[in-house]
UniProtKB/TrEMBL annotation:
SUPFAM superfamilies: NAD(P)-binding Rossmann-fold domains. One of its GO terms (cellular component) is cytoplasm. GO terms for molecular function: oxidoreductase activity. Pfam families: OCD_Mu_crystall. This is Ornithine cyclodeaminase.
Length: 314
């Protein structure tokens, strides 16, 4: 059995690899070749959580189980830490353990790339990001993979973190002009595409500030108590998509709330990533507001774990 660290994986396995592998696993899902159990989220003290996600692909003959710890209180360690166990289903042999923090961020960014490719305006030039924690970086990478972004506007409650995030993007080689602003409204009013990656239990921006034609990627909240988007945003969205509808029904706080108070019904969700990854551009016109909500599912982790295994087995 091999052991792979985040650093080893990050050197070799990048966003374009992850996008291709996520599309492949979505095809497996479409072909009924994916078996998974519901994600288990266990609360720890305060806002900390433990997540457990098992999944099998009968097409690729591998199984994964991912364990993730989410500890917002961390100062000297990452907020999110994960590990994946990969099993070969031909003989039941455990083939690898690998760090999953980078892969979790990367597969989520790849999923955002697929949604953005289908839903954001083709001429979108300005990307806004609210929340500049670890998860947010690969969200930016996913968007710039599929749209020609000329400007990025950043906001974080702690401005110093947003500034460091800007420096990290520049060091990575992102060519867009990058600005750090003092409030969320300055991000929202300027954005053609808006990434929201926080674990807030209260909305972090005012939906009235959204420009017509904005595409929103909501990836931060993953528990029913979390609501980083407000009711106005849900009301204004002309099209809403989910990464995995069953998971969203259990975990996406802002959509659960919107259904509970009658703003939308679950039937108003237009589809999931598996429904749109092969489709053409889905936006009806340049005035529509579109929303993609992501909470994650095990088969997305299987996608990138399988891709890494192929790369490191060669």
């Amino acid at each position: 059995m091999i052991t792979l660290t985040d650093e080893q994986i990050e050197k070799e396995y990048h966003m374009h690899h992850a996008i291709a592998d996520v599309k492949n696993v979505l095809q497996d899902l479409k072909d009924d070749a994916i078996i998974q159990a519901p994600r288990t989220v266990l609360p720890v003290d305060g806002n900390s959580s433990m997540l457990y996600m098992p999944c099998i692909s009968t097409a690729s003959k591998i199984s994964i189980i991912k364990t993730v710890s989410i500890f917002p209180v961390n100062k000297d360690l990452p907020t999110t830490q994960g590990n994946l166990l990969v099993t070969d289903l031909t003989k039941g042999e455990h083939k690898a353990t690998m760090d999953a923090s980078y892969l979790t961020r990367l597969r989520t960014g790849a999923m955002t790339a697929i949604a953005t490719e289908r839903l954001a305006r083709k001429d979108a030039k300005t990307l806004g990001a609210i929340g500049t924690g670890n998860m947010a970086f690969e969200q930016v990478l996913g968007v710039v993979e599929v749209r020609d972004i000329e400007r990025i506007v950043l906001y974080n409650r702690t401005k110093e973190k947003a500034q460091k995030f800007k420096e990290r993007l520049e060091a990575f080689g992102i060519k867009a002009d990058i600005d750090v602003v003092d409030n969320a409204s300055d991000v929202v009013t300027q954005s053609d595409i808006l990434n929201c990656a926080t674990q807030s239990t209260e909305p972090v921006f005012d939906g009235n500030d959204l420009k017509p034609g904005t595409h929103i990627n909501g990836v931060g909240s993953f528990k029913p108590v979390m609501k980083e988007m407000d009711e106005t945003t849900i009301k204004r969205a002309n099209q809403i998509y989910a990464d995995d509808l069953e998971s969203v029904k259990e975990e996406a706080g802002e959509l659960i709330h919107a259904v509970d108070v009658g703003i939308i019904s679950w039937d108003d969700i237009k589809g999931e990533l598996v429904d749109i990854f092969e489709q053409d551009y889905l936006r009806q016109d340049d005035e529509e507001i579109t929303l993609y909500k992501c909470v994650g599912a095990g088969y997305f982790d299987l996608a990138v774990a399988g891709g890494v295994m192929k790369m490191f087995a060669e």
